[in-house]
Amino acid sequence: MPSIVAYESSSIDWCEENFKYSPVIAEYYNTVSNVVFFLLSPLMVYLSRSFASNSSWHIHLLWFCMTVVGGFSAYFHMTLSFLGQMLDELSILWILSVACILWFPKDSMPLSFRGNRWSFGWFVMALSTCCTVLAFLKPNLNAYALNSIGIYILYVMYTSLRWCKTPIIHRLAWQTVLWWFLAVGCWLSDRMHCSFWSDLGFAYLHSMWHVFIAMASCHCIILFAYLNVLQEVPEKRPLLKYWPRNNWQIGIPYVLLNSRSISAKIF
């Protein structure tokens, strides 16, 4: 039985040809494409200064988690090891957990937790711990389970937007959905139609998944951060902006807050 840290000890192998460009990197483009996480995370820390100082510094936890996801994903695709696979998938699970603890809409919480985000946070942590253990039982199903969580997030987004009538936020939601569909489309196509893409000489759709899902994640985090402030401390008057140019209303979204109001309390 191969070691869990051994090269190609994972049962998962993506469409890109292994060790084609480097003797030490199994999937070169799938590895290098994770640089998008390392570029976006510090940029989002910079753009989220207003939100962090006037509402909650916890938003920086998510940008840090994105860096961790990028690092573990790069390690997995570099080695295709079982350890790399689990670190990659579990880091995604836990960034979803942190995001839920911070900004899961109160109206969508189970009735027993509404109004008590602290208790809800402990529930999410306990559930995530159980899922972490279960992930080792059927590791081939982990990626599909994580993508199914994405479908639920889209549902929560839809229900949350029913009370928000701001057009620019609905536009942000559609942008989030577009990035997510592009990402999942690349993921599924690379997984299910590898021979087709290999025949075309383009077996790199999974590397594009990394770029698209990173963009979808940034959009989704900012969307729920905005909705959280709008619902819990509307006097903050959140403003949605885009980098590098706001008048494009496309690019990297971020939230500006009124600094003269009291700070929001997450817990």
TrEMBL record:
Its EC number is 3.5.1.-. Its cofactor is Zn(2+). It catalyses: an N-acylsphinganine + H2O = sphinganine + a fatty acid; an N-acylsphing-4-enine + H2O = sphing-4-enine + a fatty acid; N-(9Z-octadecenoyl)-sphing-4-enine + H2O = sphing-4-enine + (9Z)-octadecenoate. Ca(2+) binds at residues 13-14, 16, 18, 27. It is a multi-pass membrane protein. The chain crosses the membrane at residues 28-47, 59-78, 90-106, 118-137, 143-161, 168-188, 208-229. It is found in: Membrane. One of its GO terms (cellular component) is membrane. Pfam families: Ceramidase (PF05875). GO terms for molecular function: metal ion binding; N-acylsphingosine amidohydrolase activity. Keywords: Calcium, Hydrolase, Lipid metabolism, Membrane, Metal-binding, Sphingolipid metabolism, Transmembrane, Transmembrane helix, Zinc. It is an enzyme of class 3 (hydrolase). GO terms for biological process: ceramide catabolic process; sphingosine biosynthetic process. Zn(2+) binds at residues 77, 206, 210. PANTHER family: ALKALINE CERAMIDASE, ALKALINE CERAMIDASE 1. Hydrolyzes the sphingolipid ceramide into sphingosine and free fatty acid. Belongs to the alkaline ceramidase family. This is Alkaline ceramidase.
